[in-house]
Design a protein that fits this description.
By secondary structure, the chain is mostly beta strands. Helices cover 11% and strands 31% of the residues. A hairpin with a 2-residue loop joins strand 4 and strand 5. The longest helix has 9 residues. The relative contact order is 0.32.
Length: 232
């Protein structure tokens, strides 16, 4: 029997010059400084893959993503197009400018070896987790455990009941869906491509994601006028 080939839909990337385009393997970490005005696109290649995410002011990492400031600023517990990621001084770090999925989590937190052991049993103690990814990748930028804060979980489905109870359930993403963020200042981004296999956040099967940084083309209004050379 011949296997049928499957393809992942090609996302609509922002117009401009691509400065980074990388596949982040399942369970791996990634980081980059996204310059002010540049666009970061996160593509869920195979669907239902949570992408844990932290953001810092690249020049002052004491100013970092703040879930309380972000939620208060937008009056919603979910993130989507138009959501502004705010730092601990309520200043904008990044803005979601496009979103194919429609809803993302910013209250569920990151998995860790400790939380896995507590929730799923001591047999999980040796499993890799997002906190370990953040610590390893953050150390490349001088960050440590005290610099980790409540993170965003792109593509993770965490519904909240009227009584305040929340859960991690099957995702609502699909292969090839993407979201794009615009950096409002120079932003250091840390990503953990979530390795969790004990709950449905990754469909119990972590998969790769694609991260693309784009320098947008200047609009005519941004293009400086040229003065003709004398004598021409």
């Amino acid at each position: 029997m011949t296997a049928t080939a499957t393809t992942t839909p090609t996302p609509n990337l922002p117009a401009g010059t691509i400065t980074r385009d990388e596949i982040v393997p399942a369970r791996s970490a990634w980081s980059a400084v996204v310059p002010a005005g540049s666009l970061l696109t996160i593509i869920d290649l195979e669907g239902n893959q949570a992408v844990d995410f932290l953001a810092y002011d690249a020049w002052d990492t004491a100013r970092r993503y703040s879930a309380p400031d972000t939620l208060q600023g937008q009056d919603s517990i979910f993130l989507t197009t138009g959501s502004v990621l705010r730092d601990c001084e309520h200043s904008p770090l990044m803005t979601v400018v496009a979103d194919d999925c429609g809803r993302h989590d910013t209250i569920g937190g990151a998995c860790s070896k400790e939380s896995n052991t507590l929730r799923y049993g001591h047999h999980t103690a040796g499993q890799h987790a997002c906190v370990e990814n953040f610590l390893a990748e953050g150390s490349r930028h001088g960050l440590g455990k005290r610099d980790l804060v409540s993170n965003i979980n792109w593509y993770m489905n965490v519904p909240v009941d009227p009584d305040g109870a929340l859960g991690i359930v099957d995702g609502i993403s699909a292969p090839g869906l993407s979201l794009t963020l615009r950096a409002e200042t120079d932003v250091l981004v840390l990503v953990s491509n979530c390795p969790q296999i004990n709950n449905p956040c990754n469909g119990f099967d972590p998969t790769p994601v694609r991260l693309v940084v784009t320098d947008p083309d200047p609009t005519p209004a941004q293009t400086p006028a040229r003065t003709p050379a004398r004598g021409l």
